Amino acid sequence: MAVHFQNTYSRSLEPFIPLDPAGKTVRMYTCGPTVYNYAHIGNFRAYVFEDLLQRHLEARGYDVLRVMNLTDVDDKTIRGSRAAGKRLHDFTQIYKDAFFQDLDTLRIKRAQHFPAATEPQYIERMIAMIGDLVAKGIAYQAEDRSVYFRLSKFPDYGKLAHLNLDELRPSGRISSDEYEKESVGDFALWKAWDEVDGDVKWESSWGPGRPGWHIECSAMATALLGPELDIHCGGVDNIFPHHEAEIAQSECCTGKKFVRTWLHCAHLMVEGQKMSKSLGNFYTLRDLLEKGWTGREIRYALLTVNYRLPLNFTIAGLEGARASLARIDEWVTRLAERSAGLPEPTPLTSHAEKFFAALDDDLNISGAMGHLFDLIRESNRALDDGALATAQAATLSQSWARLNGVLGLEREAAAIPPEVTTLVEARQQARAARDWKGSDELRDSIARLGWTVKDTKEGPKLTPLAG
Ligand code: AMP
Ligand code: ZN
User: Fold this and answer.
1) Which residues line ligand 1 (CB under 6 A)?
2) Contact partners, residue 465, CB within 8 Å, separation at least 6
3) Cα(198)–Cα(330) distance, rounded to whole angstroms?
4) Is the CB of residue 340 less than 8 Å from the CB of residue 454?
5) 331 within 8 A of 380, measured Cβ to Cβ
6) I need a surface site. Which of 119, 229, 271, 372 has the fewest CB within 10 A?
7) Which of 323, 318, 258 has its CA nearest to residue 289?
8) What is the pLDDT of residues 14-52, one digit of tens each?
């Protein structure tokens, strides 16, 4: 089975075929963080899912060209910077830096581009897109000087969310104080400057103001990936109105179908509620690190629940992650010990093939992990019985390396003690002098200090023994 995804747009499982005629490059856009605070682990559920998606596509031979935006201007960032008495840029920089650190802690691969909404070339593009929509009669400036998207001009609005939006399209003009737009559903493309915005403003032909959140993504996505994307992701809360609005704006500007495959992850929940900043029921990554959990354990807990299922976040879940990782580590070490000296890559075993096949099926990670643990159980049994040949152990070690390329769950490299380094150097000298007996004795001494040494083309490699 080739890679398949459950497309939010069609609500069906579809084979994945990128637009690239060579079938190689995948253009992928993921809505990134609003940088007014530390991201919470609910946000990171979305980013870890997108990381798994990218890694699996790469494992299947695709080149993933990925863009993740940073929303560094909106109501929340402006409010936060004023409360902190900082300029917007200085305020958001703190959380941009923190975000990149957190990505590393969770081993999330970097996108090729992390465009920030306030970068001049993107502001320019947002203004140009809004101008285009106004020229086409699809957008209008209202009495409050803001510019709105005229929803009645885009009949497909609501198709992604599968909503009946008739109630959002009243025929007459709404004269309530609250709405200066023509219709309740019309959303802002350009927000006219207001006193509370302080010095945050850009000039435009509609007067000073700033872009709306939705147009930020349309502009950055099309600037870096072109008018047609293969995959666009986010959490389910982004479907409406954000992604609907992105579709409406982008398609009215380019005349092309904006996105072929929409993928949305379900929420990370705490006691039955979505983890969110506004509910105050959130943990940041830093909170959990302070409590002694590692980035790897948190990654495991976020990664191993299928993305379309809600993930109930609990400390017991983190304890389970810790236990599962210990089981994997012990297995990896046993394999390394058994396979020492056989560096040549060998084909994947059938369990490993099943692992990748499960991921082909709409990233069925829980199925994939099931195959990994079957593999661990069976090979541990063979190791216990002394029935695993050295060559088989080497094959399995290679399989693990492939699986781990997608999982990103390898053990942190332990610091190598200086006495071990000295023994390894002595062993290299013994080998150079063809003193095989001396070399073997040194190998044993290294093992007594808790390390296995393996000879590879790049030189000796050390692995800590399970303990
Ligand atoms: P935000 O910074 O609120 O714009 O959110 C950034 C990303 O995190 C978006 O893709 C959201 O859909 C996603 N997100 C926010 N809260 C959660 C949650 N509790 N579970 C999963 N994803 C979330
Ligand atoms: Zn977005």
Assistant:
1) 31, 33-34, 42-43, 45-46, 234-235, 237-238, 265, 267-268, 274-276
2) 333, 337, 447, 450, 451, 452
3) 57
4) yes
5) yes
6) 271
7) 318
8) 999 999 999 999 999 999 999 999 999 999 999 999 999
